[in-house]
Design a protein that fits this description.
Layout lengths: L9 E4 L19 E5 L4 H4 L7 E7 L9 E2 L10 E2 L12 E12 L2 E4 L9 E7 L6
Antiparallel strand pairs: 1-2, 1-8, 2-7, 3-6, 3-8, 4-5, 6-7
Family: Belongs to the tRNA methyltransferase O family.
Keywords: Methyltransferase, S-adenosyl-L-methionine, Transferase
GO biological process, one term: methylation
Length: about 130
């Protein structure tokens, strides 16, 4: 298999608009945000309720796909490390994994707690967080 196809199912609405201002992890001051799903996905989202734990899978569209090694957390005092051993967004396939808790649901708009993705980030999947389900 040479290629695969990933289609966005929605996008993130957030007050974070500048990648430089985004926290590296959600627990470092990320704001609440909205997952805005595309029309036609009502059945897929029908069983999402406030209090549910989800893992949001995003396409980190502003990431550099050519980077293979980084200084973890952008700290140049730390040794260069292969991206597969880090959570750096810079990587060959920049998928983001974001555990969140649902705060509210309004149709195809899902309000979630701390999410470090910037406004407009494509969502490629939403999965139940089995360790945090109701």
């Amino acid at each position: 298999m040479d290629t695969i196809e990933i289609r966005p199912i929605g996008h993130v609405e957030s007050t974070l608009t500048d990648l430089a201002d985004a926290p590296k992890q959600a627990d470092e001051g990320a704001p609440e945000a909205w997952l805005v799903l595309h029309d036609g996905l009502q059945a897929a989202a029908a069983d999402i309720h406030p209090g549910d734990g989800l893992v949001v899978v995003t396409w980190l569209h502003e990431a550099d796909r050519d980077v293979l090694v980084v200084h973890p957390r952008s700290d140049t005092t730390r040794p260069l490390t292969g991206v597969f051993s880090t959570r750096s967004p810079a990587r060959p396939n920049p998928l983001g994994l974001h555990p969140v808790t649902v705060l509210g649901v309004d149709g195809l708009r899902i309000h979630v707690d701390a999410l470090e993705a910037v406004d407009g980030t494509p969502i490629v999947d939403v999965k139940s967080d089995l360790g945090r389900d109701r």
